[in-house]
Amino acid sequence: MVDIVTNDVKNSDTRSRKQPSALWWLIPPGVALAWIPFRICSPLWFETGSQLFVQAWVLPVVALLAWTRKPDWQRTAKELEELFPDPRDPRRSGNMILIVLGCLGLILSQIALLPLVSILGFCLVIIGTVFYLFGPFLLRSVISPLLLLLLMIPPPHTLFLVLLARLQLAGATMLGGGLDLMGIQTRIMGAQVTIKQSGWQLQIIPSLSGIDVFLFAIFGTVSYLIWKRAPLLKSLLTLLIAAFLTVIINLFRLLLIGLVARQYPSVANTLASIPALPTILCVLATIFLATRKLLSNPTTPEEK
Hints:
By secondary structure, the chain is mostly helical. The protein has 12 helices and 3 strands, in the order H-H-H-H-H-H-H-E-E-E-H-H-H-H-H. It has helices at 2-21, 27-46, 58-68, 70-83, 97-112, 115-147, 157-181, 206-209, 211-228, 232-263, 265-273, 277-291; strands spanning 186-189, 192-195, 201-203. A hairpin with a 2-residue loop joins strand 1 (186-189) and strand 2 (192-195). The longest helix is centred in the middle third of the chain and has 33 residues, at 115-147. It is elongated, with a radius of gyration of 25 Å. The relative contact order is 0.09.
């Protein structure tokens, strides 16, 4: 009887040790498939003046946020080992359905060169791997950072161009209206603003439309909310504040260029050619300072 119990314990330990190594043979094809979305989407992210460069930052930020959940992961894993000693228990391990669906999506995107399908497949593979190895309870502890991967999905090209055009027109309208209120007469033609006094013209190009600033602001705010584990109502309020501050700061940027152009057109041209990085950093810092008190006492898992 003792031998039978000992053998059962040894077999259970052996299964526990072999379970993670069961995926070693999947690593080479997994790496090859994981490269597909980056090969398809990298031209969208890294081309000169890309407005979607923010998506290249999503994966490292998700990894960092998942790492901050390590104490929760370890605590949950210890509780599961005590409650369910068998590593094959469905509460400690899952199935491979998400991995299979993700791989099929990656293969399809390789054939059709579809960025949206490639990123969806990549997300399913990542989430499915965590689910297969560690089960639903451990997946739940890191699901919010993993869902942030969905922000890597490039928007439909036509829809993005329409949104960009509308933001350019809105930027020109706000700049012209703001300068008129300051006593500087302007003429607006589409996305172009002309100061009548000096004849200086500013074309609201994509880099001045504020769309890249807005995308970075939303991504940074959502990442901050996940890190702080903010409740839903506070999260929605924070996102509204972030959107409002983004519009105000980008308008201030355009007004600054217009005011400088009244006396120093060459300096204004230099300001207009500066990348949006300083504006992005200013927006993120302002959002952090404006919402720090609002999110100072987030609801913890124990309070829920």
